Structure formats: C-alpha cells, structure tokens
Task: inverse folding
C-alpha cells in the first residue's frame, strides 16, 4: 500500500526538493525518506513556524521513479543537464541544481553547489533519488492544509509516515484539486536569495542543513 511521508522544510532554497525543469526531484537531504520511499508513495513538505508557514504545504510529489544517486547522475547528464549545478550561471535556478555528485570518480566528486563536504556523508547515506512528473510546488506562497489534514503535519526534525495512513486518500484527493500548482512552480522558493549570487553562502546554512533530518 502506498504511503504518505510528511516533514517540515526548514530551508526551501530550490535544491531539496528541486522543482525546476519539468521534474521535481529529491536527491540531497532527507536521506531516510529517500531510502525507504517507493514509487507510488507521496512526499509532502510543510513550512516552518519561523517563516509563519506552519500547517501549509510548500510542495507535494508522487514518487513516479526511483533510482540510485549514481544512476541519477547518469540520467541528468543525458536527459536533465539543467539539474547539474552551474555555479556561474545567470540564474539561481542553475546554481541550486541537485545533481551535485559526479559518480564518474571514486569517491564521487562534489561539485560546486548548495552543499559542501560537511554535507557529503548525510547526502550519500540516502543512496537513492526520488523523481516525480506529478508534483505540486507552491514555494513562498504555500497552500494551507484543511483542518481535517492537519494531523499529517510534522513540526521539527524527522518525518511521519505510519501515522499518516488514515489520511492518505484524503490528502491525495485534496492535493489533486490544487490545479494551479500542478507540475509547475506556482511561486519561487522562500530562500532563493541565498543563492542569487555566486559568492559563497554563509557556512552556518550548510551546518544547519547537514544536521537537519
């Protein structure tokens, strides 16, 4: 039976998830979810209280494909090169590409990207990449959950899945009614300006990201 995974997004900069170029992908951060989620499952990220986005959906994706991170690297090189970060690109969307590990070397080379070496162990521990061509991305205009779906919200670290079982069908019905954000970026990521320029990002952001699950 398909599962519904829900978690709080403390930093939404367009990298995890990466909703650009027609495919929503989760290739870095959330290693446990990337390991255990299967095709047919749904992943939903709700906003953080510090942004006053609590109880609101930032994005939701049905997992329509799952592959190893090494396979994703090859997939991007062939089909989705835009997901490979271009740190000198003109747009932040080019810099927040999530295909940040080049598996043509051993160990994989970490490209200049939203993550640093401190993030490597956690990223690679996820092993897999989740992809979706059926997603809803609201960004910095998150969509409030109806009251009957508030039990799926998980504030703080970690995630919910087993406890979401009674709400799976209701959530899918609700999210599929949000046509304005279907397979598109309805609004830009809240923290996109962190990567609006090519200068190095404050290291504190990487430390927080590497210790948030």
Result:
């Amino acid at each position: 039976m398909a599962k519904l995974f829900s978690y709080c997004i403390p930093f939404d900069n367009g990298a995890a998830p990466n909703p650009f170029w027609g495919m929503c992908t989760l290739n870095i951060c959330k290693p446990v979810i990337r390991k255990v989620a299967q095709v047919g499952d749904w992943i939903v990220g709700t906003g953080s209280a510090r942004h006053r986005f609590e109880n609101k959906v930032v994005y939701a994706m049905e997992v329509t494909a799952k592959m190893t991170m090494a396979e994703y690297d090859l997939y991007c090189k062939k089909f989705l090169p835009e997901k490979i970060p271009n740190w000198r690109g003109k747009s932040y969307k080019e810099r927040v590409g999530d295909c940040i590990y080049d598996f043509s070397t051993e160990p994989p080379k970490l490209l200049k990207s939203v993550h640093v070496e401190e993030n490597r162990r956690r990223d690679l521990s996820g092993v897999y990449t989740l992809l979706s061509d059926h997603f809803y991305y609201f960004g910095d205009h998150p969509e409030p959950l109806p009251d009957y779906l508030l039990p799926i919200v998980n504030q703080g670290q970690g995630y919910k899945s087993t406890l979401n079982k009674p709400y799976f069908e209701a959530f899918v019905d609700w999210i599929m009614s949000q046509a304005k954000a279907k397979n598109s970026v309805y609004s830009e990521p809240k923290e996109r300006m962190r990567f609006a320029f090519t200068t190095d990002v404050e290291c504190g952001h990487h430390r927080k990201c590497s210790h948030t699950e």
Summary: Confidence is low (pLDDT under 50) at residues 201-205. Residues 69-78 form the longest helix (10 residues). The chain has one domain: 4-194.
